[in-house]
Amino acid sequence: MAATLVKKRSATATILLLLGAVYCLLPVLWVLVAASKSSDELFSTFTFTPSTHLFDNIADLSNYRDGLYWRWMANTALYAGFGALASTLVSAMAGFALAKFTFPGKSVVFNMVLAGVLVPGVILAIPQYLLLAKVGMTNTYWAVLLPSIISPYGIYLARIFAAAAIPNEVLEASRVDGAGDWRTFGTVVLPMMRSGLVTVFLFQFVAVWNNFMLPYIMLGDDKLFPVTVGLSGLLNQGASQPAMYTSVVTGALLSIVPLVALFLALQRYWQVDLASGAVKG
User: What are the counts of helices (DSSP H) followed by strands (DSSP E) for the chain?
Assistant: First the structure.
């Protein structure tokens, strides 16, 4: 009876997971198929019937305004890469301090971080624009980079992970050996928080890569646009130039390739840490 119940539960869970996978992957499949069609085929053929124009569409997109799309991709890589790295470092330092140090106002600071997690980033876009406009930094790379450095959710994750992954005995042993706080943080804390910081980095990288509202408000020069804002402009042109719809779909397909590659490249860090934890246990 118990074995039968376990099998039924496993089958139900498998079916639910498969339905979830289909729900998530179906739009990606549509983008892949649509990017292979010409502008005439995009609206005249069956949705999931592939064609042979993918490389032609990529060439047309690359030729748009002397390769402006690849400028958008480079801008996005800069915003997401720098923003995620800086945010991960700040989150690691703040999370470690909140988890392992005692100082006046610690609970107040942590509660403010929790409040920041609950505030949608869209709400902060206008105040951030007004602040940066005061110092003349709008319509520059810094207008997108600076707001990306602080991530309340990243600080919260780093704090939780530091509290669980770093024993106090290790910190005490490091201090007994004569290491200062910064040396302890760089040589002891960061390696022990590696898998958690990879998670923080991925969350922030994806958030900045897909961010639309902040750069849309901050930037006016299309040479500074990330790919999200750039493709939105192409989509608006599609009302008068239907051929642009194909370029938008192709651009959307190319924009997810770096994200997939990043997830595949960093996945091994989770597997290594989980395996090493099992061995230590």
Answer: 15, 0
Helix (H, G, I), strand (E, B) or coil at 140: coil
Structure tokens at 251: 């651009």
pTM beyond cutoff 0.70 = yes
CA angle 144, 149, 151 (to 5 degrees): 115
Q: What is the pLDDT of residues 245-265, one digit of tens each?
A: 899 999 999 999 999 999 888
Angle between the N-to-C axes of helices 244-280 and 68-100, in degrees from 0 to 180, rounded to the nearest 10: 30
- pLDDT tens, 169-212? 988 888 888 888 889 999 889 988 888 899 999 999 999 999 99
150: left (phi over 0), alpha (psi -120 to 50) or beta: beta
Say how far apart CA 55 and CA 228 lie, in whole Å.
21
Q: What angle do CA 41, 44, 45 make, to 5 degrees?
A: 75
